[in-house]
Records
---
Amino acid sequence: EIVMTQSPDSLSVSPGEGATLSCKSSQYIGSNLAWYQQKPGQAPRLLMYGVSTRAPGVPGRFSGSGSGTEFTLTISSLQSEDFALYYCQQYNDWPRTFGQGIKVEI
Amino acid sequence: QVQLEESGPGLVKPAGTLSLICTVSGGSISSSYWWGWVRQPPGTGLEWVGQISHSGTANDNPSLKSRVMMSVDKSMNQFFLNLASVTAADTAVYYCVTSLYGRFEDWGQGTPVIVSS
């Protein structure tokens, strides 16, 4: 199975600052990578797919980059509603696998 | 965008079978989506359980050691998860999801399931 490793485990950021979240896959996954945001007590929400395509309704301050095995989610100018858990997920191979998550906190 | 709602017992005895229903609204289960399940044990991350197409083609996570059975009822616009021989390790919030080209687009609100005697 493809192992997804996210770093750092948590990130402390002030509102208005930027944040860079990393995700690495143990094997080549091309552009078959998605990012999800999860707030406490809520279901995850699709943010990004195909590495860099924002899901409908996702603000432009979220951007994705990378290819192959190394990927990045960048949040420019964090807003209060962006403090949450973020997961990456590969869909290049079965089983579908997620990273362990990154907590973005104040 | 479809709406998904999970239902089922919140408590299952060890060695029993966990059975969940996901009701789809705002779209047809005969569409091009795959219909899946993702779970989240308490305080931890997300684990893909499996998914099924409207025609019944299914894939599930090998880590679950063939305990997963999924099915679809087109007439009711529902799909189902059965997880056999459960243990405490199967305690989790279970989400039903739509899968399009591998990404999970829509999520139910999640239903907690506890495995305990």
Note: The longest strand of chain A covers residues 19-25.
---
Amino acid sequence: GAGVSQSPSNKVTEKGKDVELRCDPISGHTALYWYRQSLGQGLEFLIYFQGNSAPDKSGLPSDRFSAERTGGSVSTLTIQRTQQEDSAVYLCASSLLPGQGAYFGPGTRLLVL
Amino acid sequence: DQQVKQNSPSLSVQEGRISILNCDYTNSMFDYFLWYKKYPAEGPTFLISISSIKDKNEDGRFTVFLNKSAKHLSLHIVPSQPGDSAVYFCAAYRLSSGTYKYIFGTGTRLKVLA
């Protein structure tokens, strides 16, 4: 498929464990975004990549959250020492150019017990 | 501080009628506004966008209207179809801010009744 893919689709983890979420954007898309949606909430911005650099990390909730992007393509979002409040759907999106309508992946549903 | 607000959590419309989804914003510096549709267990799908220099953009059954003086935008779906039943999010961003993060509203759940 040519869309944005994310893995895993679901992740259940214990409080205190680290998790790594992966995003494969649409080929050639230079801009990549991570959002999360908690139960009953809107989409909350986490981080934006242009190429491999992240001009805007302002949405990362704490220093337990980090993200990287390599080769201008795949991105990973890492959450260290997970907490129950980290439970949410983590969505990745990409766009050909910054600011264009971004295409979202199906999300990773994270549940921290 | 919620910069983008969707004050109606849900809306029900009869098939064939017009659906009007509303969105208000507080930041007059937003340059672009977008609407996304989201089905359960799927990521949001981009529908339509509008630049702040325009007041209307149309794409098939979907039209977005922007009223800058009122800081209000709306999405009109005509005619509404059962397949339009989904959660609709409006979003906005500023080009000049150096980032392209979208600020999303909390969504409106549309149900189109057959």
Note: Chain B is about 0% helix and 55% strand.
